[in-house]
C-alpha cells in the first residue's frame, strides 16, 4: 500500500460504501459516536477515515463486499488502516 494519501483515498471510498446503505451508516455512527452533520464536516479528517476503516474491518461480510465492489485485495483496507492515525504498530 502506498503511503498515507493512498490510504486516505481508499478510506474515502470506504466511507462512500458505508454511507450508501442506511443500516451500515447507522451502525458506523452508533459505534463511532458521530452524527451525520459531524461526519459530513469531518469527512476528510484522517481520524474519521481511520474510524471508517476500523468499522469496515470489524465486519468480514462488509469488508469482502467492499473489496469486491472496488475490485481490490481484501488485505488492502487493513494495510491502509496502518497508514492512518491510531494504528497499532507491531
**What is the radius of gyration?**
12 Å
Structural class: mainly alpha
> What is the H/E string?
HHHHHH
What is the overall shape?
globular
Range of strand content: under 5%
Helix content range: 55-70%
Count the beta strands.
0
How is the topology of this model organized?
Elements (H helix, E strand, L loop, with lengths): L3 H16 L2 H11 L3 H6 L4 H12 L2 H11 L5 H6 L9
What does this structure look like?
This protein has one domain (about 5-80). It is mostly helical. It has helices spanning about 5-20, 20-30, 35-40, 45-55, 60-70, 75-80. The mean pLDDT is about 90. The chain contains 6 helices and no strands.
In brief:
With 90 residues, this protein is mostly helical. The chain has six helices and no strands.
Fill in the keyword field for this structure:
mainly alpha; single chain; 90 residues; 0% strand; 6 helices
Amino acid at each position: 500500500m502506498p503511503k498515507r494519501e493512498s490510504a486516505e483515498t481508499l478510506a474515502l471510498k470506504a466511507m462512500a460504501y458505508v454511507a450508501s446503505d442506511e443500516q451500515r451508516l447507522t451502525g458506523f455512527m452508533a459505534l463511532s459516536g458521530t452524527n451525520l452533520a459531524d461526519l459530513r464536516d469531518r469527512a476528510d479528517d484522517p481520524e474519521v477515515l481511520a474510524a471508517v476503516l476500523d468499522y469496515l474491518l470489524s465486519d468480514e461480510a462488509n469488508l469482502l463486499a467492499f473489496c469486491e465492489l472496488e475490485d481490490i485485495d481484501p488485505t488492502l483496507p487493513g494495510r491502509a488502516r496502518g497508514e492512518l492515525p491510531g494504528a497499532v504498530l507491531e
